[in-house]
Design goal:
It is built from 12 helices and no strands. It is mainly alpha-helical. The chain has one domain. The radius of gyration is 28 Å and the shape is elongated.
């Protein structure tokens, strides 16, 4: 573990990617949706710029010649990708707190009401903003109530309560990306409906006009174009939705493991080291 003698091991203000780019950083692993949306839009512009520079193919046609639906699909997919990337970077910074030892390693140190302030000072030496780190905020809330609680079991209960709150916060941080994963296939189905309507309309015109075989053959190009829009927009949407869903699943698993590590850290370094001294117990009982 890192020694707390090294000042400012972590700095939320300097190391958070959103803060560094002059946006308001989301708390813990939450993201600034405006920042991610702007990055997603820039990514879509870059994607279509690249597509415009390469020779036409079936793939480029899927993105550029199937109406407006693929543009919206790409935008939501890119926005979702940026959210996952930013959350991954923020989670990496949060995970570094597990390797930091905030308690003195000397055996004679006892964590109690009288030494809580020393622990807070040591946390302040390690990070610039403890409230923006899941682990240190959890410890700070639990030990801030130690003077009123007075019992080790109550501190343990407070830590578990805060752990449940952090899990709930983690779940809500995925709400918008879950919405995008739902919306992307819906956009694909909308593209399918538009494509089929074009194909059916074109087929109706072919049948209604009659004419010779050459006219019918040339008119069928409208029908095939509509069918391409119908099937390729759905394919594009489903592929993007699948990729984003898998990436979200792996990231969420890493975040859940981090919260488990925080709970284990608190049990090992806080609860197991916590002692209520006799004179402190008398004060609490008299109160």
């Amino acid at each position: 573990m890192n020694n707390t003698n090294d000042p400012q091991v972590l700095s939320w203000r300097r190391q958070d990617i959103e803060q560094r780019l002059c946006f308001r950083g989301g708390r813990f692993t939450k993201v600034n949706n405006l920042f991610c949306g702007l990055c997603g839009f820039a990514g879509v512009v870059l994607l279509y710029l690249v597509l415009s520079l390469i020779p036409r193919s079936q793939v480029t046609a899927m993105f550029t010649e199937r109406g407006l639906t693929p543009y919206f699909i790409c935008f939501l997919a890119m926005w979702s990708s940026v959210i996952l990337i930013v959350k991954r970077l923020k989670l990496g910074m949060q995970q570094k707190t597990i390797a930091i030892a905030i308690l003195p390693e000397t055996e004679d140190f006892t964590l109690s009401v009288s030494t809580v302030d020393q622990l807070f000072e040591r946390i302040g030496m390690v990070v610039d903003s403890p409230s923006h780190f899941v682990l240190f905020r959890r410890i700070h809330i639990a030990l801030s109530n130690l003077r009123n609680l007075g019992r080790v079991t109550d501190v343990d209960a407070m830590l578990k309560s805060q752990a449940e709150h952090d899990e709930s916060t983690m779940e809500t941080s995925y709400s918008i990306i879950r919405g995008f994963v739902w919306a992307i296939p819906v956009l694909g189905f909308i593209g399918t409906v538009i494509g089929l309507s074009q194909a059916i309309g074109g087929f109706g015109e072919v049948v209604g006009n009659g004419g010779d075989i050459n006219d019918i053959t040339s008119s069928l190009s409208v029908v095939t174009a509509g069918l391409s829009t119908a099937f390729e927009t759905t394919l594009l949407a489903l592929v993007f939705a699948l990729i984003i869903q898998l990436a979200m699943t792996f990231l969420k698993k890493s975040e859940e493991e981090f919260l488990d590590d925080c709970e284990e850290y608190c049990q090992k370094h806080i609860v197991n080291r916590l002692r209520i001294m006799p004179f402190e117990q008398e004060v609490h009982e008299s109160a």
